[in-house]
Structures are given as structure tokens and as C-alpha cells.
Design a protein that fits this description.
mainly alpha, about 75% helix, single chain, about 140 residues
Length: about 140
């Protein structure tokens, strides 16, 4: 595993940006449409249970580390912000959004739900790829 070759500050920042994107995506950007698709009257209204947000934050870190490790294996020395973003697009569409679509169709979920969820994941993976691809150890925090 290339975990010792990963620049951890970049991964943590990328995870925080991914989590922040999720707050915007499922809040002001698409919260109402997403809530209607999953039959939740007021998405995000229940703040009494912190578990979903804690899990989302933890999974943001997991996704950021996975993208960083795969990017390292595929493009270690020549990676850039652009190549990292391109890799994020490839990983997001090729591995995650495609699997989400197959599952969503089997479960009879609305297409708009897939578009919202997969869109967040793909754009989020692109964001993570851009950060971990472009931010190398030589850059100052």
C-alpha cells in the first residue's frame, strides 16, 4: 500500500472540501429535490442525531484516501491538478456512478435521485483528485 507516499495534509483538505461540497449539494443546491425523491419533507432538519453527519465526514476521509492511493498508483510522478481531476472523473463515473445507476435501476429509484447522488460523487471525486493531484509535498501549507 502506498499510504506512506501519500501527502496526508492534501488528503485531509480534500476530504474537508468533499464534505463541504456535500453540505452545499444536499442543502441549498439540491436539498429540496433530493428530499422529494427520497420522500423526506425537510432534508437536514433533524440535527438531533449526529450519526449521519459523523459517518459522512468519516466516509469523506475514506474516499479521499482511496482516490489519493489510486492516483498515486496510476500517476505518481507526473500527476498534476488537471490529471488528478481527470482521474477523479474517471473513477467517479467508471466505478461509483455506474454502480449506483445499476443499483438504482434495480431498486426502482427515481432517475433524478441518481443524478443528484452520482453528480455529487463524481464532482467530489474530481475535487479530491484535483487537490491530491496538484498538491505535492514541496508546496507550503
Amino acid at each position: 500500500m502506498p499510504i506512506d507516499k501519500i501527502y496526508h495534509p492534501a488528503v485531509i483538505v480534500a476530504a474537508a472540501l468533499y464534505f463541504g461540497l456535500g453540505r452545499l449539494w444536499y442543502g441549498p443546491l439540491f436539498g429540496a429535490r433530493w428530499g422529494a425523491a427520497v420522500h423526506i419533507a425537510h432534508p437536514g432538519a433533524s440535527v438531533s442525531d449526529p450519526v449521519p453527519m459523523l459517518v459522512a465526514a468519516a466516509m469523506s476521509v475514506v474516499i479521499a484516501y482511496v482516490v489519493a492511493m489510486l492516483l498515486h498508483l496510476v500517476q505518481d510522478a507526473e500527476r498534476t491538478t488537471w490529471s488528478g481531476m481527470s482521474f477523479g472523473l474517471f473513477a467517479g463515473v467508471g466505478m461509483i456512478a455506474s454502480a449506483m445507476l445499476a443499483s438504482g435501476l434495480q431498486e426502482g429509484r427515481p432517475t433524478v435521485l441518481w443524478l443528484i447522488d452520482a453528480g455529487y460523487t463524481v464532482i467530489g471525486c474530481m475535487l479530491i483528485g484535483a487537490v491530491v493531484g496538484g498538491w505535492k509535498r514541496s508546496h507550503v501549507l
